[in-house]
Each structure stands twice: as structure tokens, then as C-alpha cells.
Amino acid sequence: xxxxxxxxxxxxxxxxxxxxxxxxxxxxxxxxxxxxxxxxxxxxxxxxxxxxxxxxxxxxxxxxxxxxxxxxxxxxxxxxxxxxxxxxxxxxxxxxxxxxxxxxxxxxxxxxxx
Length: 114
Fold this sequence. Notes:
Order of helices and strands: HHHHH
Shape: rod-shaped
CATH architecture: Orthogonal Bundle
Largest sheet: none
CATH class: Mainly Alpha
Number of domains: 1
Strand content: under 5%
Number of helices: 5
Helix content: over 70%
């Protein structure tokens, strides 16, 4: 008896995958094997970079806080140590936002920890 293949399901599976290749350049968008590899690689990059985005934002916040704290003759590490010692419950995201968009409020925080 000949082998039966479910070509309807196979085609649907490929079609569903090829929808993800929309917008790719060259053979990456219309050749199955090339597109499949590129889609899977893209998913790996997306997974990895969802983690990396958190690291990059934390680095950015630290740079902004450091730049703002140095205007008041304090390094980042000294400033953050004093913030924690003073039990000020502001995280780096909020402190960086204050440093950029509301310098008066940041100065108030600096005065509170000095």
C-alpha cells in the first residue's frame, strides 16, 4: 500500500510559516528552506533581545543618574548608596527620568541624601 501524506496539513504548515517571512529580502521571503531558517533565526534574536533590552535600559538609566549626580559632586555609586541608606524608594528608572525631565526634583533628592 502506498504511503499517504497529508499534503493539506503540510501546505498549511508551510503557508503559516511563510507569513512570518513577509518583508524579508530576496530568497528569504519566498524559498521555503531559506525562509524557514531565517524565521527561526529571527525568533532566536527576538527571544535574546527581549532579555537584552532590560540590560540596555538599566545601563542607560545608570549613565543618566551618574551624569546628573556628578553635577552635584557625587559619583553614581556614592549617590545610590546614600539613596538606599536614606530609605528613598525610587528605582533607577524613576531617578533617571527625574534627572532628565525634572532636574529640580532630582536636586531635591540629592539634597535629601546629602
